[in-house]
Amino acid sequence: MAVKVYGPSCAAAKRVLVVLIEKAIEFEVVPVDVFKGEHKDPEYLKLQPFGVVPVIKDGDYTLYESRAIMRYYAEKYRSQGIDLLGKTIEERGLVEQWLEVEAHNFHPPAYDLTIHILVPQLAGITPDQKVIEESEAKLVNVLNIYEERLSKSKYLAGDFFSLADISHLPFTDYIVNNMGKEHLIKERKHVSAWWDDISNRPSWKKVLELYKAPV
Amino acid sequence: MAVKVYGPSCAAAKRVLVVLIEKAIEFEVVPVDVFKGEHKDPEYLKLQPFGVVPVIKDGDYTLYESRAIMRYYAEKYRSQGIDLLGKTIEERGLVEQWLEVEAHNFHPPAYDLTIHILVPQLAGITPDQKVIEESEAKLVNVLNIYEERLSKSKYLAGDFFSLADISHLPFTDYIVNNMGKEHLIKERKHVSAWWDDISNRPSWKKVLELYKAPV
Q1: Hey, what domains does chain A have and what are their CATH numbers?
Q2: What are the GST N-terminal domain coordinates in residue numbering (chains A, B) (predicted)?
């Protein structure tokens, strides 16, 4: 039975879709229009009580939080397709470390830039320059640490592609392709090479082609 | 060789210490005085480039981000002490889901309450009531969802104690015991019973006894 992915157009869902494609897991999508507030519908809240996307249904099993869903499929189909968790417990530890860094250091300023640059563009309102400048400064600090890290290993968790890299795809794509901030990536040699590598994977290209971003 | 835990007095480090005690893993602690800025010392930044606590050293292996360290030891010593990851891949998925909920839904308002109630108390300055009210409102929403969840299972991920529960200990302890907000827990029957259960584990009592909070 195919995995049902709710809300495939949203950034967080794209993390999950990349994993499903990398693992050659059959899936179908269920659109959730967040601009119409469908993520707050009572039926949706039965699946995801916090009212955010994505959520998956796999037979009777329901799971939410994109980084949890990624881990679940990477573990369940560990030997199918590319291994996304590292080969040893120590490598898995580093995958977890960089997943947490993505969630706590990279994501907040990247998300704030998205909200304060892309949403005002779409709505035709004046963006809050102070928030944009503060978010960019935070992101610069994070990316400087990434540059140092990626001068020593090809990917974040080591010399192997993993969930930690995948988790960065949706918001780095916004930074590079939608908000005129590509210099943040391009002016850092190792970050730029890493981005070229991960963003050219067929799985990511397929996700971008199939599921247009709502912003 | 004992695991070295840097910054044992800080809230995030306490998550790690509980896991080490539950798993009967030998450890030693290395104090990091964040009030003196020791987490920004060049030597410390070599271990943890983002300048936050905790970090562990285990022989040649260094790992940071408390939730990543918890997962590493829960996996490495899976059969030693209590299993903290669930028995099946599906249970592990739910542990991951609730760890993510803790990180993204529970932690931000709980952290903001801590910063805006406890720090002003210590510094003798007037707290920002607006931030406190907004954070409390967010936390109420989260705890209402927890109440529903905990009416169906004894612990967050199911009828088994896991990392997802442990991850809530440090900041729920602040809420209940340090900031006069214990009603948030006590007035919810199932959340209150869950808190009584997990906060009475010998591992948590030992951590509280050994490592005083800096705030």
Answers
A1: 3-83+205-210 (3.40.30.10), 89-201 (1.20.1050.10)
A2: 1-81
